[in-house]
Write a structure and sequence with these properties.
The protein has two domains: 217 residues, no CATH class; 242 residues, Vaccinia Virus protein VP39 (Rossmann fold, 3-Layer(aba) Sandwich), CATH 3.40.50.150. It is 54% helix and 9% strand. It contains 22 helices and nine strands. The strands form two sheets. Strands 3-2-1-4-5-8-7 form a seven-stranded mixed sheet, with helices on both faces. A two-stranded antiparallel sheet has the order 6-9. It is elongated, with a radius of gyration of 28 Å.
Length: 470
């Protein structure tokens, strides 16, 4: 399901949905003209659908602007989008008339002596002054606007948003000629084009926000997140394990974005840890069909990892380790490798932190991930650890790194910058798959020393709880 979703990017998805909506409207136009007229009338369901979709675009843009501001990045795009959506929503349903009982956003109101002069002047200031202020603010930052526009148009969601905006603007400019096209019911083409534009822009900004990813998480995507299970299978084919035994540390519910479910299905023995009691209940339900996999409802730490594995009789050179605890992963792995030598390691990394910066959360028994960017270890930190223990860094797949013991690895350990670029930085869809990394994207253009300084600033509230160095 995940691979299907990623093939259906915002451009394809918006085109398919718009085609279906257009087909439906066309059928209604020719088979039930009264219904078509009702759907396209003033304040109809079609207009309210447009408003809700455009309001959603505004909310997405506002949230992204807030994140960009926190990260110290330009917010010109978000300001422009929010302003445009506010104006569009007001004009589509005459929101001013609904709220005040009179059409305030209109020239005739400004000059109508029936209304108090103070009220009319206030209307002029709000209706004319606010957009003018935004325009002046944007024009004063025209270089940022141009740069952000070019960057946006390089991404699928940006191309989709531009197509939707262009359709909406053309519809407004050519409203009169469009309404005169024959074989349509009252305002059908105009309202249809506006609806399609709203759908397109909503899909674009939803994709930018990572709504598709979050939907997959919410409904429980079964199997690995970014095909890690296939990567594991490929490396196991090249380096057959001595023991068909895996260890999954922080297994979640055992199915949603699991790196090891495919191994359980293939009949492997295994040991899965999950400390969260709710997730462990789901894990037990998932693995009731796989009796060869043992489960442990406990949090794994550097202090207990070796004893936990030994108490369960895990072979020293077991086949696969999957590690993803979103915290002090570095120290758990370091302690584990002092006593065990897994044949293949799939370790989550904090992929937003580029090499050669070495970052890791330090171990504290009371640590809990706050769902922010303060988690795990950077690839450079993991690279230092693997070198100490004689492992080869063979691949990166978005936010996971793969290690193989040097004595059996078919390839030499690859330079950390090269494997990072190949497995994450050069992937054109990386910000579609990991949209929350947009607020950390500025790090990619900084020298290593400035990356360290930027992280110290970002993680100021975690002072003393991490290592960050070049």
């Amino acid at each position: 399901m995940a691979s299907l979703f990623f093939r259906l990017d915002s451009r394809t998805l918006s085109a398919l949905l718009c085609a279906l909506v257009s087909l439906g409207i066309g059928i209604i136009n020719f088979t039930d003209p009264p219904l078509a007229i009702a759907l396209m009338a003033e304040d109809s369901a079609t207009e309210w659908a447009q408003v809700l979709l455009m309001a959603g675009v505004g909310v997405f843009a506002a949230r992204q602007g807030w994140l960009a501001r926190r990260a110290g990045r330009p917010v010109v795009l978000e300001v422009a989008v929010v302003s445009a959506m506010v104006i569009a929503c007001i004009s589509e349903i005459d929101l001013d008339r609904i709220l005040f009982g009179v059409k305030v956003v209109a020239t005739w109101f400004f000059v109508n002596p029936r209304y108090p002069l103070g009220l009319r002047m206030l209307a002029v200031v709000v209706v004319v002054g606010s957009p003018m202020a935004v325009c002046v603010w944007l024009l004063s930052r025209w270089r940022q606007c141009l740069q952000v526009a070019l960057e946006t148009l390089r991404e699928p969601w940006g191309q989709t948003a531009a197509a939707g905006a262009a359709l909406y603007i053309v519809t407004q400019v050519l409203e009169g000629p469009i309404d005169k096209i024959p074989w349509q019911q009252h305002h059908l083409l105009e309202e249809s084009f506006e609806l399609l534009a709203a759908i397109t822009m909503f899909i674009a900004f939803a994709a930018r926000q990572g709504l598709g990813i979050r939907l997959l998480r919410a409904i429980g995507q079964r199997g690995s997140n970014f095909n890690e299970d296939r990567v594991i299978g490929a490396w196991l084919a090249r380096v057959p394990p001595r023991h068909r035994y895996y260890v999954d540390i922080a297994a979640g519910d055992g199915a949603t974005m699991s790196n090891t479910l495919a191994l359980a299905r293939a009949g492997w023995d295994g040991l899965a840890f999950e400390g969260d009691p709710v997730l462990f209940t789901r894990l037990a339900r998932t693995y009731s069909r796989y009796p060869r996999v043992r489960l442990a409802n406990t949090y794994v730490t550097p202090d207990n990892v070796v004893d936990l594995l030994r108490s369960q009789g895990v072979p020293r050179d077991f086949g696969v380790l999957s590690l993803d605890i979103d915290s002090y992963d570095h120290y758990v792995l370091a302690r584990l490798l002092e006593a065990f030598r897994p044949g293949l390691i799939c370790a989550e990394i904090n992929e937003a932190i580029p090499p050669p910066v070495k970052f890791t959360v330090t171990y504290r028994p009371d640590h809990a991930w706050a769902k922010d960017h303060f988690f795990g270890q950077s690839l450079a930190m993991l690279d230092a650890l693997r070198a100490r223990h004689g492992y080869a860094l063979v691949q990166v797949e978005y936010n996971n790194a793969f290690l193989v013991p040097e004595e059996v690895s078919p390839v030499r350990s690859r330079p950390v910058a090269e494997v990072y670029r190949e497995g994450y930085l050069a992937r054109p869809d990386r910000l579609l798959r990991l949209p929350w990394n947009r607020e950390m994207e500025y790090l990619q253009g900084l020298p290593p020393e400035q990356v360290v300084a930027a992280l110290h600033t970002r993680f100021a509230r975690y002072a003393g709880r991490y290592v960050c160095e070049v």
